[in-house]
Amino acid sequence: MVSQVDAAYADVALAELYDADPSPDDASERDALIDVSLTGWRENVDGLLDDIVKLTALLGGTLSGEHGDGRLRTPLLAQMWPDETLELFALVKSAFDPRGLFNPGVKVPLAGQRPLGDIKYDPGLAPLPPAARAALDLVTAERAYARPRLSLLGE
Hints:
Blueprint: H1 2-12, E1 15-21, E2 29-34, H2 41-58, H3 70-73, H4 83-96, H5 130-142, H6 149-152
Antiparallel strand pairs: 1-2
């Protein structure tokens, strides 16, 4: 499978590919560093994701490995799971979060949600509000990754 994934990445030619977690059993984690400054990067990566998801589903693999599905992979779940399973995801989420307040768009996609929706490093998106940018810069500068982000907005 790794050679097929590498070939899909090579077709796009907008990323540096590296093996994030080499494994002797060919179950490796491939990551790409996408150059978002290139024209058409989003469309190319959309096509790449489609190819990788189809290949992963065909081979009985998983998109998330040891990670959760998050906002990036949630819109792709319909290609990986049967409708009955997706309905169960939605039922469990609604049982614990009936008003949909916690992590909207995670595990249960929002209407029209795309895998590459609002990527935080996309130069084509509007900049973050100044208070949010300052809070994230503080997290980076102080390596304060465990601090709740909302608590930083007043600083």
